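Fill in residues.
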């Protein structure tokens, strides 16, 4: 990280308001990368769901963890033997949260569908964004999101409360994942920490992968779907997000991420045939609007947040 005195001078108000011609292609590339990242992530989850009848959510998540570990180890090239105890404990917690987050999310997708599961999971980062705020606007955002959740979880004969609970657990894991990523990033340079955490998580899923394979011998199609889920939901978004954060402001990135529940609902409809009614769309819209409003009103920071 460069020191403060090494940073270039801040642009004037007039120059900051009008992007230079050279910056326009970079911004467009950043927007394309954000769109590709979100679409790839949700498409990967939908393709992974196609393998549920053979591998189950546990088997699909196990394969996804293997793929994520391979990608992050190749990019991060960590040296875990040099980690201190102070560095190891948040890495191990991050590994536990990483695996639990994906397992609960995919289990929720299996029970309540892609759009609703991703919407509930998105309450995690929204909670992190609102937790430290005392503004009235953020209180209103929290109320709007809560109203959306009430609509999604309203009592009906077909309401799957265990599936909803899994989505909320995934949300709590995502909130913990964000906070732990920040801690790991401060203690370990680069992406070494997330790479080791992904590898530890993958190792813990090895026994599960063996058991699933022995009980339900996978077909080649199911394995390909699970691998595709790992590539599209882990490798592609990770690399695309690295490109995006170099080209667009972190706040813009966060705002665009808010549309992921909508993308999930659309992909679920196209790939999995999961249709939603008007109340469900209203609930998703409320959560998305709350997240977007909370992020849009936050003061701009000079540096991008820790990213894993």
């Amino acid at each position: 990280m460069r020191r403060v005195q090494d940073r270039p001078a801040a642009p004037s108000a007039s120059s900051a308001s009008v992007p230079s011609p050279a910056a326009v292609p970079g911004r467009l590339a950043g927007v394309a990368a954000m769109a590709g990242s979100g679409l790839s992530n949700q498409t990967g989850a939908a393709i992974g769901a196609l393998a549920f009848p053979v591998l189950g959510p546990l088997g699909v998540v196990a394969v996804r963890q293997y793929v994520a570990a391979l990608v992050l180890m190749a990019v991060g090239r960590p040296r875990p033997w040099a980690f201190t105890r102070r560095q190891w404990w948040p890495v191990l917690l991050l590994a536990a949260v990483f695996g639990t987050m994906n397992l609960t999310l995919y289990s929720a997708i299996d029970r309540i569908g892609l759009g609703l599961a991703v919407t509930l999971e998105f309450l995690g980062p929204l909670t992190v964004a609102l937790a430290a705020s005392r503004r009235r606007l953020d209180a209103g955002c929290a109320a709007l999101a809560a109203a959306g959740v009430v609509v999604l979880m309203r009592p009906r004969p077909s309401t799957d409360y265990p599936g909803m609970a899994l989505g909320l657990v995934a949300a709590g894991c995502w909130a913990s994942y964000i906070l732990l990523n920040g801690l790991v990033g401060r203690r370990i340079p680069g992406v070494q920490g997330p790479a080791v955490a992904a590898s530890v998580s993958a190792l813990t899923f090895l026994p599960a992968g063996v058991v699933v394979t022995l009980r339900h011998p996978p077909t080649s199609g199911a394995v390909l779907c699970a691998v595709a889920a790992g590539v599209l939901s882990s490798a592609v978004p990770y690399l695309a997000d690295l490109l995006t954060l170099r080209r667009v402001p972190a706040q813009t990135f966060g705002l665009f991420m808010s549309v992921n529940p909508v993308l999930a609902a659309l992909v679920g409809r196209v790939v999995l045939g999961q249709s939603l009614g008007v109340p469900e769309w209203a609930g998703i819209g409320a959560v998305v609007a709350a997240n977007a409003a909370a992020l849009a009103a936050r003061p701009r920071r000079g540096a991008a947040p820790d990213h894993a």
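Residues 1-18, 302-308 have pLDDT under 50 and may be disordered.
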